[in-house]
Structure formats: C-alpha cells, structure tokens
Amino acid sequence: MKILLAKTAGFCFGVNRAVEMTYQLVDGGHKVATLGPLIHNPQAVAEMEKRGVLVAESPAGLPPGYEVVIRSHGVPRSVYDELSERGICWHDATCPFVKKIQNIALRAEKEGATLLVAGDAAHPEVQGIVGHTSGEVYVFSDLAGLKAWAGPKDPQKPLFVVAQTTFQVSKWQECSEFLKKAYTNAEIFDTICNATWARQQEAEDLSQKCDILVVIGGHHSSNTQKLVEVAAKHTRAVTVETASELQPEWFADVKTAGVTAGASTPSSIIEEVLNSMSEEINDSMSFEEMLNASEE
Ligand code: F3S
C-alpha cells in the first residue's frame, strides 16, 4: 500500500501563533487561561493543561492572577469589554485573517450595512464576527439557508457578505454566484483563508488519487469535518483523532491511502498516525519511504 501525505496537513499559521504565544507566556512564568479550549484538538489541549494552562468558560470564572490568551477564532467585542471591566490582562491571538472579518463587521456597523455571514452560527469564530456589529446580521450555512433569507429590512442600505475562514470553498462559490444575481448591491468579501483554500484543494486532489483518505483532526473541529466532506465526494473518507482509532480493516483492499489533517492537528499526532499505518498496516514501507512517496 502506498501512502500519500498532504503537504498542507496540520497546524496553520494562526493556530501555530496562538499555541506559541501561550507557551511563551507559560515559559515566562505567567498564569495563563483560555476561554474555551485553545484549539480543537483534545490531545494538544490536554498537553497544555499539563503545563498549567487553565481552560475557563468565561472571564467571570477566572481565579485571580490569570491572564487570558484570546483564541485564534476571536471573540465578540463584549468579551474584551468584560475583561477590561474585571481588570484581567489579555493577549490577543485572534488570527489576522479573522481580525480582517471582524473589521468588516465593524465597518458594517459604522456604515449601517446589513452583514451576511456564511458559516456555522454555533462556531466561536462566527459568534465573534457577529459580536462585532450591532447592526442587522444574518448567518447561513449553505445555499438553501441563504435562499431562505427574507432579505434585508431596508434594501436601500449597503449589504456586506463575508465567510467564516474555514467555510467550504465550493459552497461559497455557489452562494456568491446566487448573491451576485439576487442582490446586485452586495459587496462580497472573499474571506476564506488561504490555508483553508489550499488544504481543501489538496484534500480534493488527493482524494481522487486514493482508495481511502484518512483525515486526522478533532471530532469537533469544523475545518476537519469540511475536509472529510470534500474528500467524500471522490473516495472513502475517514476521520481519526489519534493513531489508536485507525482500523486495520479499512485498508484491506487499499492500494493507495491518502493522509491529511485539520488546522489544529499537531505534527506529533500526524507522525504517530503515519508510523502506525507504516508499521502495522504497511510493513513493507518505512516512515521515510512513505514521506518520500508523498513528495512524488
Ligand atoms: Fe487563521 Fe486560517 Fe488558521 S484563518 S487560524 S490561518 S485556518
């Protein structure tokens, strides 16, 4: 069995920055807390907790002396206000790509524009974006959701459209096409981040060359789930959080297996999965040979 590893697998720039910021503070002797898990990967979060990082629900529940690292997903403005009111020091690891969307939301408020957000309303990034405008907002997760929208209260006002950074590329293209025809005044901002574009594109390409694509990532990670959706159009796509979840029977008749990973997956976990596939399932190929095969 040949194994092809995606070049875009694993930590993206924004997640890497947030993790490094957190560890630098911990190493500098600071007491550090995050509001919710820093990244959508339980193993990486457990490692941080071992090193003293506290995962809190809200600023209200923080013990004295803790400083907050704001996650790469960002937070609503109300959270900054609450941190200030409580005198809690914070370090902002909001990914610059997310910050850019929050600034568009702020502009929407200033210019009286309606804001349309393509994304998952329950995702913290979307809640953070929505929490940057007090104006009219509508969140939709696909074309059907967009078509169900009754339209802006005041059609004369400007209409801004953004996407969650990890929104599925093909869905975004579909929705953008519809919007251009239905709302000719819509200002559409392409806010899916480059790392997401590249990772989804590579998952799609890889899935067409493989009998199975293993996607490594947190079961609650939205960008991991999107990689599975993209790959499932062309091949069998399975998701694992760690090497222990690999099922040898998945690979019974497989000639070529692909491996990719979500933006919150540490390289150590990717390596464990590759090692496990190499040693237990793919006796004939060493880890190095497998990586070389993926370069071809
Ligand atoms: Fe930022 Fe894109 Fe990662 S928005 S957090 S670089 S997936």
From TrEMBL:
GO molecular function: 4 iron, 4 sulfur cluster binding; 4-hydroxy-3-methylbut-2-enyl diphosphate reductase activity; metal ion binding; mRNA binding
Active site: E125 (proton donor)
Binding site for dimethylallyl diphosphate: H40, H73, H123, S221, S222, N223, S264
UniProt keyword annotation of Iron-sulfur present: yes
Residues that bind isopentenyl diphosphate: H40, H73, H123, S221, S222, N223, S264
Gene Ontology CC terms, in alphabetical order: cytoplasm; ribosome
Alphabetical keyword list: 4Fe-4S, Iron, Iron-sulfur, Isoprene biosynthesis, Metal-binding, Oxidoreductase, Ribonucleoprotein, Ribosomal protein
Residues reported to bind [4Fe-4S] cluster: C12, C95, C193
Physiological role: Catalyzes the conversion of 1-hydroxy-2-methyl-2-(E)-butenyl 4-diphosphate (HMBPP) into a mixture of isopentenyl diphosphate (IPP) and dimethylallyl diphosphate (DMAPP). Acts in the terminal step of the DOXP/MEP pathway for isoprenoid precursor biosynthesis.
Name this polypeptide is given: 4-hydroxy-3-methylbut-2-enyl diphosphate reductase
Organism in which the protein naturally occurs: Faecalibacterium gallinarum
High-level lineage: Bacteria, Bacillati, Bacillota, Clostridia, Eubacteriales
Range of the intact protein held here: 1 to 296 of 636
